[in-house]
Design goal:
The structure is a homodimer. In chain A, strands 12, 13, 14, 15, 16, 17, 18 and 19 form an eight-stranded antiparallel β-sheet that branches. Chain A has helices at about 10-15, 35-50, 100-110, 130-135, 140-145, 180-185, 220-230, 245-255, 280-295, 305-315, 320-325, 340-355, 390-405, 425-430, 430-445; strands at about 5, 30-35, 55, 75, 85-90, 95, 115, 150-155, 165, 190-200, 200, 210-215, 235-240, 270-275, 300, 330, 335, 360-365, 370-375. By secondary structure, the first copy, chain A, is of the alpha+beta class. In chain A, helix 8 (about 245-255) packs across helix 11 (about 320-325). Chains A, B: This is FAD-binding oxidoreductase. Chains A, B: Keywords: FAD, Flavoprotein, Oxidoreductase. Chains A, B: Its cofactor is FAD.
């Protein structure tokens, strides 16, 4: 096998984990960095021959544990397969290798006035292949869709080393089963993505209009968000910060940004940040204003680019601000039908009281995707998830239960990996779980592709 | 088994065929019209016990033969399961039974200012379940997407009679493999869709602007269409009529519509009809005008609603006009990368000369989906596809070959069914064909679901 390989302890340890906090049992046998499809095939075949499992990896930014690699595994890291192979403005597509970073790809596309819309918060540091393997979301999904809508075709190395190109280069096509969509969000369990035909679109309009609704509670802010959707408006971005999160963000920005002007005017509040775009942005924002006004203490419309940046900057500051609260954090990722969001916030407050936990939440309110974040004192002497106290796990279990009770999902955009695997059969039901296990087995009869992740 | 059933010869014959022209070997053993999921399960279980295969059917408007039912089959017709179970403006979703017609659903949604965008030409007579089973396209796909983008979840009766609910009610979600997308476009071979959770959106803007570019040839019109895409514009509709099609349409409308004003001014031409929508419709059309002007003999911008209707009416008149040319017709459905469309029209002209056939084409030029239509004298004494002469079949084979050579697909929106099955392995490749066959077997180990369709 050509290509680069590492077997030193420090590298193995670094590539055994992702950003989930999961600590695997030991380290992989090696990390390889293939530079072409043939090298990926060689790696998979070597692993198969030697009874070693394969863990595909992009930049390792995943939050669910899908890229963790324990003993007896080979990490196949795609970060050196990072070329843009083709950009066609006329065909509205780009062909790329999986290891390119999302922001790097978009920098190339922007030169042609094009854009690949998936925008996970990690986009500066996460790979396109990883975005696809996780079906990544982001801020703009309610209007611009999740990753799945922006992939036309994939070339994949299967568990037996064969290469299959699925999907197509055309916008339409119904020839055979859509297994491309099955690979999207499969978290490295069905094959290794080695080439991606991406659907691209013209750049997002530079015309933007932005407001913040300052509400008494997250329940009010969620009701305001529902009112926007019910009024048939379609903001590009609609982000909700609950009371605890808003206070943390304000505190953080007051401490770190001398130009920051606090829209809450120092009073506890939940914030709904809304941005419209396109030729009708200002007119649409006026309608948003009408929809949210009845639920808000006051509404502030950004009057300048600087003010827009400051408001959107509040959303971007959520995780730094929460980390500043002290202790460790565990980020959840439930999604509920948009109409149930207000109720979901009420339930989060109940969970806080019942388990004595601190659980600030931010939400992509346009699509009902909530990120409750447990903030806790780590268990002494432990690291990673072992440092999460038992009562926090119990509270986390109840967060999942709430999501499923409301007709929602365990994971809106982070994936199942190891962290949510235990709950997946509850969401899928027994029959679908069995069906999905059997389908996985077709792709990987011997169970060498990222075993133990997503489904048993 | 409760529910309605028919076994009389006339009904069996009527329900043995769809609109593909395929004539099956004999008639089904019975047609049943279940009224709920339990009755669908009962029908499937009865078929399984009696060694009979199952052919799911909506309105029978399919063009690929997926709903044809020969001897030894049971037709499960979903047309009586046609209820709207839920419409939620706040959650932007609708839950419906599969047998509702597309237009009927949209009439219900429009009352709430909502819209389910899939718009196959058959939408007045085709069912939502059928649209999903075929992943139907239409005029608006380049801007508004195909059916797959507008389905959140499905409830399906499997071949063993079990019921599985897949997908979700939330916009985002990455819990488990996306098997919902696999069912979409599966043409009744993986299970019977009994309930659909549809993603809906606000109604298409009533602001429209429309033009027609009158070009010397389809090659010029295709180049004009490419120029629109390359200019990063996104019309709601961009339809191309080649020279023969335009002449047929003009002839037909002159004969049938006394108010019709011919935009070609009586000279042979290929037409590119472009409609923009939304708040910036007029401004965007002006940019379209700039993009196409260099490729057109002249460009006419609709100055009134009546003129808009007249221009769009030319596209709607394509199939009636071609049928008026005399003889029988065979409609193809290839899609090619948008940049290859001009070349594809040249190849269609070559095929006309080589095989001595008449092959007018219309295209959804915004997404490269072309409908070449063979017009021919039927073989004496034969009906259906048996009446298609050998040289027309040979020419049709070459149409498919051209599509695949250009990196396109056999079928953009009509499906594989029986008509294109022979060519599918060539498009998918040997390894993917085998993979898809194995995946089908997981859903249907005994091969009772619509056997012989799509894949062997």
């Amino acid at each position: 096998m050509r290509g680069s390989i590492a077997t030193d302890e420090a590298t193995l340890r670094a590539y055994s984990i992702d950003r989930s906090g999961v600590e695997p049992d030991g380290v992989p046998v090696a990390v390889v960095w293939p530079e072409d499809t043939g090298q990926v095939q060689a790696a998979v075949r070597w692993a198969r021959e030697h009874g070693v499992s394969v863990v595909p990896r992009g930049a390792g930014t995943g939050l669910a544990g899908s890229a963790t690699a324990g003993s007896g595994s080979l990490v196949v890291c795609l970060e050196r397969m990072n070329k843009v192979l083709e950009v066609s403005a006329d065909d509205r597509l780009a062909v790329v290798q999986p290891g390119i970073l999302n922001d790097e790809l978009n920098a190339v596309l922007h030169k042609d006035g094009l854009w690949w819309p998936p925008d996970p918060a990690s986009k500066a540091i996460s790979t396109v292949g990883g975005n696809i393997a996780a079906n990544a979301g982001g801020f703009l999904c309610a209007k611009y869709g999740v990753t799945q809508q922006w992939v036309l075709g994939l070339t994949v190395v299967l568990a037996d080393g064969r290469v299959v190109s699925m999907g197509r280069r055309t916008v339409k096509g119904v020839s055979g089963y859509d297994i491309t969509s099955m690979l999207i969000g499969s978290e490295g369990t069905l094959g290794i993505i080695v080439e991606c035909v991406l659907k691209v679109r013209p750049l997002q309009s530079a015309e933007r209009a932005t407001l913040v609704a300052v509400c008494d509670s997250a329940v009010d802010a969620a009701a305001a968000a529902s009112a926007v959707t019910a009024a048939n408006l379609q903001p590009a971005m609609m982000e909700l910060l609950d009371e605890v999160t808003s206070a943390a963000v304000v505190g953080h920005l007051v401490a770190t940004d001398e130009t920051f002007v606090d829209p809450t005017e120092g009073k506890p509040a939940s914030l709904l940040l809304v941005q419209t775009d396109g030729l009708g942005a200002a007119a649409e924002l006026a309608q948003v204003h009408d929809a949210v006004a009845g639920f808000a203490r006051h509404v502030r419309v950004a009057q300048s680019d600087a003010e827009t940046e400051a408001l959107i900057g509040m959303r971007r500051a959520v995780f730094p601000a929460i980390e500043r609260m002290g202790g460790s954090v565990l980020v959840e990722d439930i999604a509920v039908p948009r109409t149930r969001m207000a109720e979901a916030f009420t339930r989060m407050r109940e969970i806080e009281r019942k388990y004595g936990v601190t659980l600030p939440s931010a939400a992509h309110a346009g699509d009902g995707n909530m990120h409750p974040v447990f903030v806790f004192e780590p268990v002494a002497g432990e690291t990673g998830l072992d440092a999460v106290p038992a009562h926090v796990w119990e509270a986390a279990d109840e967060v999942f239960t709430v999501a499923l009770e409301m007709g929602g999902t365990l994971t809106g955009e982070h994936g199942v990996g190891l962290l949510k695997k235990r709950f997946l059969p509850e969401e899928l039901g027994e029959d679908q779980t069995e069906l999905q296990q059997q389908l996985r087995k077709v792709f990987d009869p011997d169970g060498i592709m990222n075993p133990g992740k997503v489904l048993d």
